[in-house]
Design goal:
Blueprint (H helix, E strand, L loop, with lengths): L1 E9 L2 E9 L8 E5 L7 H11 L4 E5 L22 H14 L2 H17 L8 E6 L1 H12 L4 E7 L17 E7 L5 H14 L3 E6 L16 H20 L2
Helix pairs in contact: 3-4
Length: 244
């Protein structure tokens, strides 16, 4: 296993990033992984290392780089219910400042950087993300239909900026929702938009979960749901990247 701290040139500066890849020179299929709102930290690095261990080059950019290198705010070792209000009071201005225009400019830079790495093989890549990162992953896949072969988003506010853009998707998709993240009507609407897009997809609520169920440093973490997320993600990547 190899890990790196990298710096990605962007239209607005330079984004620091974490990368994990198997030992050896590759080439490996590329995966762009977007963190949740808490950003790059030990729990996210562990997710990236776990995914890299299955044979992928995983790039995790700090999408809050305009406000400084990760961690942009000081985080407790464990983000419990008692800590969340103070953490979110600092995070929300950063999230609100991350406009759709910034998301798209950054996505261009992240994908160009990822595919230029010597350890990354030619061909399409995958994007995945958690919470707000799942929304960023979805926007990236929509904007790069010829380059992104797979999209996975977990406990993400997919559709928060409208469902019409999903018609542009060409990637195979998995959406893993927490209970309470979507109303039944909201889930039906999302699935109807995916049906209209005409791509292969799964969109399911993970039973008994709360928002953030993949994050091992939070009270929301659910080991069974985390394993289900790995099962769904790895199956998707194996179909779309490694079987080509």
């Amino acid at each position: 296993m190899t890990t790196k701290t990298l710096h990605i040139p962007t239209a607005d500066g330079q984004s620091d990033a974490f990368a994990a890849l198997p030992g050896g020179g590759g080439p490996y299929p590329g995966v762009l992984m977007y963190a949740d709102g808490f950003g790059i930290r030990p729990a996210l690095r562990e997710l990236a290392r776990e995914l890299a261990g299955h044979g992928f080059y995983v790039l995790v950019p700090n999408f809050f780089y305009r406000h400084g290198p990760a961690p942009v705010i000081e985080l407790p070792e464990r983000i419990g219910e008692a800590e969340r209000p103070a953490v979110f009071a600092e995070l929300m201005p950063l999230i609100e400042a991350h406009t759709a225009e910034r998301t798209l400019r950054d996505a261009d830079a992240y994908l160009a950087f990822l595919t230029a790495q010597p350890e990354v093989g030619a061909g399409p890549v995958a994007v995945t993300g958690y919470c707000i990162g799942g929304l960023l992953a979805t926007c990236t896949a929509v904007a790069h239909p010829g380059q992104v072969a797979a999209l996975a988003a977990f406990h993400a506010p997919v559709g928060a900026d409208g469902l019409d853009s999903l018609a542009e998707l060409t990637a195979e998709v998995h959406f893993g929702h927490a209970e309470g993240d979507l109303t039944p009507e909201g889930l039906d609407g999302l699935n109807q938009a995916m049906d209209a897009a005409g791509v292969g997809y799964t969109s399911e609520i993970y039973p008994g979960t709360v928002h953030g169920f993949t994050m091992s440093d939070t009270d929301a973490f659910d080991p069974a749901a985390s394993q289900l997320h790995w099962d769904r993600l790895l199956s998707l990547l194996d179909r779309t990247l490694t079987e080509r």
